[in-house]
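Handout, page 2. Input:
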Amino acid sequence: MQPLQLSILAFCLVALCQTCQDTESSTTTKDWWETAQFYQIYPRSFKDSDGDGIGDLNGITSTLEYLKDLGVTAAWLSPIFKSPMVDFGYDISDFFDIQPEYGTLDDFRNLIKKANELGLKIILDFVPNHSSDENDWFKKSVKREKGYADYYIWHDGKVNATTGKREPPSNWLQAFRGSAWEWVEERQQYYLHQFAVQQPDLNYRNPDVVAQMKRVLRYWLNEGVAGFRCDAVPVLFEVEPDENGQYPDEAVSGLTDDVDNRNYLKNELIENRAETIDMAYQWRTVMDDHQRIYGGDTRVLLIETYAPPAYTMQFYGNRSVKGAHLPFNFNLITVPASNGVSASSIKTAVDNWLLNMPAGRTANWVIGNHDQRRAASRYGVANTDAMNMLVMSLPGASVTYQGEELGMTDGWISWADTQDPAACNSNQNVYEQFTRDPSRTPFQWTSGNNAGFSTAAKTWLPLASDYKTINVETELAASSSHLKIYKALVEMRKSSKTLQNGSTKYAVLSEDVFVIKRSLSNSPTIIYVANLGSSSVTVDLRELDKTLTSSLILELCSLNSMKAVGASIETKNLELLAGEALIFTSN
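Output:
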């Protein structure tokens, strides 16, 4: 076991009430992204402007005032590029154009113009690992046209000594079940696809590919985007062939008996390679060069990384090389927790980021996205406000997936209505284990027809069943709601120097109670506490810090709280209802 792994294990085994603390920031003025509220939009499901049942760019443009009112800093759009939509935009046939059902380049430019007028930034999803098999690059590569022959990962395969039949080069598996290799009769070779068959992997050991993808970045930077979220980066490179030109097989993981499931293998040869880190550094140079040449605010690089801390933290860069501004932190999504979320699992997630992050870097916190079940469904509806408060109370940037501010829950999608290739590649009996459709149901604007998302007779995915009560219109009209609590959180985060620059101390007071103290010289101290359990509990906040005053002022409470905002609350015998979350201040 490596020293880093031992360190992480030690932190996971500490007593429940042990506290962790960092120091306050010496930087009083931070760049815009360091305390930003990023908001992920899944364009297909956000707002339909033309009645075809599919969200689009003009729909997003029409709702930018909503994002401004929320306090969003930057909206990140899942892929909007031209695509056959096998994987709903993550299979790109033209990296330089807009998918027609989403709109046109002019529609995109209108979106950028309106966002700029409102002081909002737009970030695009960059999909570097692969293209669509309908991309001209791939069609030319199949034909071995000059300059494109090695644009993708091609291999002859191997001949089975017993049967004499040609087989894939290795046992590697794709993310959507089955072999990661596909035979092309015309070229008489296999190509690698880490995702769907229609998503061939680009060859980053070809300098022409590297240059082409940088050209993609510069093209959209010139169109006015504020940066990129880079998709599925850890699979960018795979191990090189051996001296005989053969790829080695992956070892079996022992995690599942399902031989078509990617988790059947260890995937050490096709993920988390050192070359990938260097490529992220090169993309950061593209961002910095553009700002240096054209001026304006920092263009940000956000990296999707489901990877161990020792690998993920390298994306930040080092003393000599600048890396990603923010490698996305999925610890709050992936950390193991029995019977749902717990205070100890949250502490483990926070530890694994803050205790491994290089000095001087910025943390970030994510509780949901289009690939995961919605936060309210995973953590429990009662913990909706507690989790939103958590990511706003911790240091650094936070990311909200559309609907988390409302407490939207997963929709149920029948096999007949299933769209996600991860599910479609399975069968009717097991598809719900793999589908990502439940978190992609249309955004809930109103309690009216199609939740105000579309005027179509049928939307591309059915709506979640709770849209009549969980929607923007209803929650804005209510005296208190998840949405209003969320807006108050963002406002507090923007106005509080303590939340922007303060030191962080946190602890588990019981298996269900997590507490954070943010403090800064000459600024009010802020305390977050949440009971994530299913029953009431009484705690003493001074177990976190003996210097806390005997009472605190309640600034914000969850929807299920009976306490009055502005009241003075004793710290010693604080009773918390199940799911209750509170934010206090103390001078």
